[in-house]
Amino acid sequence: MKQPHNDNITPLRKYIAIGYAIIALLIGGIVFIYLHEWRELERIEAESKEISLLNLCRGAKEEDKVNALKLKARR
Question: Containing domain of residue 21, as a range?
Answer without folding.
Answer: 10-74
